[in-house]
Amino acid sequence: MVNPPVGPSIDGAAPLSAQDLEQICAIIYRQSGMVFGETKRYYIERRVTDLIALRRSSSARDYINLLRADPRETELLINSFTVNETYFYREQHQLACLSNSILPDIIRSKGPGDRIRIWSMPCSSGEEPYSIAIWLLENWPLVDAYNIEITGSDIDTAILKQAVDGYYGQRSLSKIPADILDRYFEPEKDQQRRLISDLRESVTFAQGNIVDRASIAQLGRFDVIFCRNLLIYFDEAAREVAARNIHELLYPGGYICLGHTESMSRISETFEPVRFPDAIVYRETKDK
What we know:
- By secondary structure, this protein is α/β, with parallel strands linked by helices.
- The chain has two domains: 18-81, no CATH class; 92-284, 3-Layer(aba) Sandwich (Rossmann fold), CATH 3.40.50.150.
- Helix content is 42%, strand content 17%.
- It has helices at residues 18-32, 41-55, 60-69, 71-81, 92-106, 127-139, 157-165, 170-173, 178-184, 197-200, 213-216, 236-249; strands at 115-120, 147-154, 167-168, 193-194, 203-207, 222-227, 250-258, 271-275, 280-284.
- Strand 8 and strand 9 form a beta hairpin.
- Helix 1 (18-32) runs parallel beside helix 3, helix 1 packs across helix 4 and helix 2 (41-55) packs across helix 4 (71-81).
- It starts with 17 loop residues before the first helix and ends with a strand.
- Mean pLDDT is 88; it is low at 1-13.
């Protein structure tokens, strides 16, 4: 029996067999919740071929055995498949909703000096959690009246290091007004600008996997969670796991902001949509 073609070779390397592809996709799914398959073969092969060459594995089979034996290799694999497309002030209407509606509602049950905890997951190279910090300093008059804690998390360990360093190019900074850019970023050097140290120190970063409860349990609970454009990469089962974990990490009545194409209403009954003037967000509804 003749085996069906599995696609062209990449850079002279043998293509992945159907079984190799299936097993690598299963490892990615098990570790991250991201769904890949035959329709993304070219995308997968390019990344896996690079990793096979980096590790000087003799074949895809040897590389898969290495993945199963060494968690650090799995970490590198996941890092290579994460999508880190973001920029400062992305979906700015949600930031306006945070300062105009969400926080004013949250502080109804808090007093001056109380903690307000905000989680950005995935945070990529830091643009989103740093945007929250800058936006609140610029747009929420009560920012100094409360103890605001902002945490950024991502499954990608390499991108978290970039977030901590805080260097950004023109594409990341293109939506920030010039006066705000000059207040919060150091002068340009080598076509990059670095976030000032006070802002870098205002955000805490930690690795976390939204479909792995154990990896995020130590983060504690939050008043607001930004989880934008992540669930679109999951299947229904992984979305349900993510929704349960988000629910567990929100304080009662806490809010979650999703990407504009995502809807928590189709995933979980533990959240209700709230239509504020600036944005539609979701509020936790069940008691813990």
